[in-house]
Amino acid sequence: MTTYSHSKLGTFQQCKFKYKLQYIDRIKVELEGIEAFMGKRVHETLEKLYKDLKFQKLNSKKELLAFYSQQWDKEWHDEVIIAKKEYTAANYKEMGRKFVSDYYEHYKPFKQLVTLGLETQDRLELADDIQYHVRIDRFACDKDGNYYICDYKTNNSLKAQEELDEDRQLAMYSLWVRKTYPDAKSVKLVWYFLAFDKEMVSERNEEQLSALKQDTLALIKEIESCKDFPTNVSALCDYCPYKPQCPAWKHEIELEAKSPKEFKDDDGLKLVDEYSLLDETRKRAESKMEEIKEKLVEFSEQKGINMIWGTEKKASVKEYYKVVFPEDKEEIVRLIKQKGIYEDVSSVNYLILGPKILKNQVPSEIIDKVKTEKAHRVSVSKR
Ligand code: SF4
Questions:
Q1: Closest ligand 1 atom, residue 234 Cα
Q2: pLDDT of 22-51, one tens digit each?
Q3: What domains does the chain contain, in order, with CATH numbers?
């Protein structure tokens, strides 16, 4: 039985290489982004709040904040990374403190809902051999038979309602609630955006949940048949604990550790600088050539000539007719097929066929006729 979770699927969609290191090679890392560290402490604190309430113990705000602070100090370790260099650990600690404090003020004395579970560890069976990890921050219900899947968000961006209506995480948990509690009148998905002291709600109907289940199973199928795990560099790399092992960042990390002299002498750095300079020169030359080409045509037309002479070379300017096809080619293609000339004028698009062969998306008889070999593509972009 294989278990999938929201973060496992999300990691695959974000970066396949990270997925491989984390879930296939199971490489353990100590590095942790401070945002995730702070998020964990806030979650622990709110878990304590509701856990104690189950035992009729209402913590004062002061007690709760003291717990938050203790947890922060107890769990702090040297591998916590602060990607945004302009802020300190103290800034983040204070942020989390404010989240807890605002939440406390907003919801005290916390009697709106009855807590059924905290940081749940349930499993939803998606298929015979596939299950889904149901981890709800706070699972609750009211007296009218409505169930609530509550999720605390500690990041600094407020999602749009549209995004939440498409969100996979809580909606998947909603499948589990509906299966486990068939009496549910409704299952509400509730996000607490703590940085904004804002609560947002969404709901899914049966049809949406069934489509979501199919989409999730399709994604799982893609994961299980995946053979290629490339890196995907994005802004999220700054929060990735695998950055030191990542081939997309290893060289940059090596460079950072070098002295200014070693930095300048690095072979890789020199090659990239030279390559990008040539790349820019080529692009500038191509654009200049287009400009000159237009001027040569103009010159030949003005003079009524078709050969223009330079010091060592001459340029021939020839007029020819080219066919301009309409943008929408559907009708033409239909006619070509209807008139029986499709075979004469069409050819196989190898740019489309190649990737399909690599992804095993064509019959094996075709795959057997080709061989694959390694090739390299080099492209330069801004750091
Ligand atoms: S650093 Fe970026 S590219 Fe590398 S594994 Fe992490 S997310 Fe992927």
A1: 2
A2: 999 999 998 899 999 999 999 999 999 999
A3: 2-232 (3.90.320)
